[in-house]
Amino acid sequence: MQTRPRRYHHGDLRAALLARAEETLREKGAAALSLRELARDLDVSHAAPSRHFKDRQALLDALALVGYERMTAVMLASQVDVGESCRKRLEAMVRAYVGFCLDNAELLDLMCSIKHDPQASAALLDATGRWSELIERLVAEGQRQGEVREGPVARVGVPVFATLHGYADLAATGMLTPELAEGGLDDVIAFILRGCAPDARA
Hints:
68% of the residues lie in helices and 0% in strands. By secondary structure, the chain is mainly alpha-helical.
C-alpha cells in the first residue's frame, strides 16, 4: 500500500521544529504555536516533537533562546571593521540592534515576554544578559578612551538601553511612520552619543 510522501524525512528534527515555529510565529503569532500543529506541518508523528521539547513552554523557551543568540551575533558582527572609535562602534551597534528588532518584531516580542516566565531556563536567562553586556563593555572601553563620561558603567549604560529599546519597540510595533522611523534613528543615535559624552551631566 502506498502512503503519501512525508515532508520531513531525517536529519535534525529539533532544528526543523524551531524553524517552522518561527515561521508560524511570524505568520500567526505566538498563540498559534503548538507542538501538535508543528508535527502536522512537518508530517511527523504527534509524539515526535516531545523527544526535543517536553511541552509548549519548552518550545517557546528554546525559540526565545535562538532569538537572543541571533541578536547577540548580529551585534557582534556590527563591530567588525568599524574601527576603534567608541562613537562609531556604538552607532554601528545601535543600528544593528534596531535592524534586528525591525526584522524580527514577533520574535522580539516573544523574547521580551518569555524571559520573565518563572519556568525560563538558565540558558535563556544567561543569553538575555549577553547583548546588554556588549554595550556595557563598549561603554567601559569608551571611558578608558576618554570618549564616554565617567561614572558607574551600569548607570551610564541604562539610559542607552532605555532609549535604544524604547525606540526599537516604537518602530517595531508600528507606532512610528516609516519616514519618522528612518530619520528618527539618526536622532536617537545623536541623543545617545550626547548623553554618553564626557561633558554630559548625569
